[in-house]
Amino acid sequence: MTRRKYTIEIAVQDAAEEQGFRNFEAGLSSLTSKNVPASSGWTILKCEDEKVYDTFDLNAPKDPCWEAILDKIKTLEAGGYRLASRSASYQMPRSGAKQRGLFCVYKGRRINRPDDGTVDVFHIEAYIDRDKNVKVDVDGPFTDSYDEYWLTLADSARMSHIVTTDWVHRTISKDNPEAVAAGGGGHGGTEFRFVIDEETAERFRKQEFRVEELDAVEPDDGRRWIVVTRNCWFQGVIPPKHRHLFKVNAEMIKGFTPARNDI
């Protein structure tokens, strides 16, 4: 066994992602963050620590099946996909002509396609046949609508849900001036304003959110109030498959939506 020092850098776009990463890496001895230019909208988290790893030979030959999978991913991305997530490699059992192989799940977003909350999924399998040639099979694309995530969110009945006319789902929490002064809160304390309907306004008043009445509304569609917050959290675009579970109750008039297609 050998002890190695390593550095991780990860790019996040909002405070929720940052907190999730911090929670996940809570065991690390050092975790710092640094901001890149504000125009980019990204925060780079950097951590350093020492952990114990199995000793391995850096000069060992690369696995031809894994290299074939990576090459196929490069082909997909050259064709217009951008990585959303990629699994590790899984060992495949021997079967028929497949003497040895690896399997990987790749999820990608189409570049320049409007974000509808879904990703395309590809199952990539690389194996060595009886003639010792590397073969690659790809199944997909399949559509992933993140069913478990959105079904859980729809069932949670949280009182602070906001769904805007572009089907973006957000939640808000009470403002925390101390956190905002330190650059904290949702989206770093950025101010958001939403025009909301009467039902939502009443619910937010009970939670002591800042709700203001509009001076005039044309046409009168029931949205006569504005909620103002510096503690807004982004959950994503609701996929078409799950939109019947949510009610549009707001229109954003100040704020921004993270460019998830650019992740």
Description:
The protein is α+β, with helices and mostly antiparallel strands. It folds into three domains: 44 residues; 81 residues; 109 residues, no CATH class. Helix content is 18%, strand content 39%. Strands 4, 5, 6, 7 and 8 form a five-stranded antiparallel sheet that branches. A four-stranded antiparallel sheet has the order 12-13-11-15. Strands 1-3-2 form a three-stranded antiparallel sheet. Strand 5 and strand 6 form a beta hairpin. The N terminus is likely disordered.
Q: Which secondary structure elements does this structure contain, and how are they paired or packed?
A:
Elements: E1 2-12, H1 15-24, E2 30-35, E3 43-53, H2 64-78, E4 81-86, E5 90-92, E6 100-110, E7 119-128, E8 134-144, H3 147-155, E9 161-163, E10 168-172, H4 177-181, E11 192-196, H5 198-206, E12 210-213, E13 225-229, E14 232-237, E15 250-254
Question: What is the rounded Rg?
Answer: 23 Å
What structural class do helix, strand and pairing data support? alpha+beta
Supply the number of helical segments: 5
Runs with pLDDT <50, length 5+? Answer: 1-8, 24-46, 49-56
**Element pattern in H and E:** EHEEHEEEEEHEEHEHEEEE
**Main β-sheet: number of strands, strand sense, barrel status?**
5 strands, antiparallel
| Mean model confidence by pLDDT | 76
Helix content: 10-25%
Portion of residues in beta strands equals 35-45%
Give the beta-strand count.
Answer: 15
Distance between the termini: 36 Å
In one word, what is the shape?
A: elongated
Whole-number total of structural domains: 3
